[in-house]
Every structure is written in C-alpha cells, then in structure tokens.
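Support reply, case 0932

Customer input (verbatim):
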Amino acid sequence: MSTLPAISGNQLIKLLVKNGWTKRKKKARHGIALYKKYRDRTRVIIIPNKNDDLPKGTLSAILGPKQANIRRKGLEKLIEKYGI
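Our regenerated output:
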C-alpha cells in the first residue's frame, strides 16, 4: 500500500478544477469552496488555499467518500493526467 503524495492545497484545487469541479466567487472561511453537480446532489468541498503541503489526515478526508470521493488512486490518476 502506497502513501498519499505530498500536495499543497493550491495544487489540489487546480487538479480538481481540471477534473470538473467549479470554484465559486466567494471565498469560504477556511479556504476555497469547490462544487460539483451530480444527478441527484451537489457536492461541496472546502480546500485550504495554502502553498504548504496539506497534512495527510486533511488530504485523506478531502479525497474520501464524504467529500471529493476520488480516493488515493483517483488523485494519482489526476496527477498523472494533468501533472502538478
């Protein structure tokens, strides 16, 4: 089992925007709000917009099923496809 790659909040935001997430004009209190519309619901995630690497727990929570729902493998595919 491999570990999560080190990635900053700003890099993750850029990857997710390229993957179909949209930024809202208003800045969220603790970062940038990204939205993605699905058939039955709209997912909203808040990502800290920092140049420092995200803590592993924060990154894992963002990638998990309750937020972006792409997991580690999905993040690796996005990095491979778009680079960081």
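We compared this against your earlier run and they match. Two observations from our side: The chain has three helices and three strands. The chain has one domain: 9-71. Please reopen the case if you see a mismatch on your end.
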